[in-house]
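Q: Structure for this?
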Amino acid sequence: AQSVAQPEDQVNVAEGNPLTVKCTYSVSGNPYLFWYVQYPNRGLQFLLKYITGDNLVKGSYGFEAEFNKSQTSFHLKKPSALVSDSALYFCAVRVSGGYNKLIFGAGTRLAVHP
Amino acid sequence: EAQVTQNPRYLITVTGKKLTVTCSQNMNHEYMSWYRQDPGLGLRQIYYSMNVEVTDKGDVPEGYKVSRKEKRNFPLILESPSPNQTSLYFCASSLRQGAGGTEAFFGQGTRLTVV
């Protein structure tokens, strides 16, 4: 079965420190991978995606993610966290050749402390 | 501005009273879907539609109905809501089937409480 795992319910980081939010996936076929962010009382906002090519993809608000095919991972990173980055982050996968269903992880709450 | 609009944003209702949550997108997207978000479970797909008059069940369709009479609108209908349908609901749209690398656009969510 296709699935996405976000192993951490919450990640705590001090402002200015690098952050990593982990995501691993299990799919058959080539995956399209996405990160979304949800701020309080808001919908999901697209951050970045991996389709093909360079394993390091850059997205909005200074975030980037690294695709690792051998480890089936797509971890979200940022070199220097801001308090305003505090939010709920979702990793999602869509399988190539299929219809447009997105499979989401359970979400990771990022808390950046001043 | 490209957007997906859901209404209402908040709704409290009683068990068994039919309700409809509306969803509209202005991007001419073929594909639309509904998700529910529950703590620890992420987002789970309820129903989806690949185009006008084409709908199908997602992973958790029980207790829900949808319709797609126009390309821009995709309402979610709860004919007899129950407390276990208390959740945060999101509508999403994206380009047609096969455009797997395109991102989905989400509405701002509808927080539904069934008492």
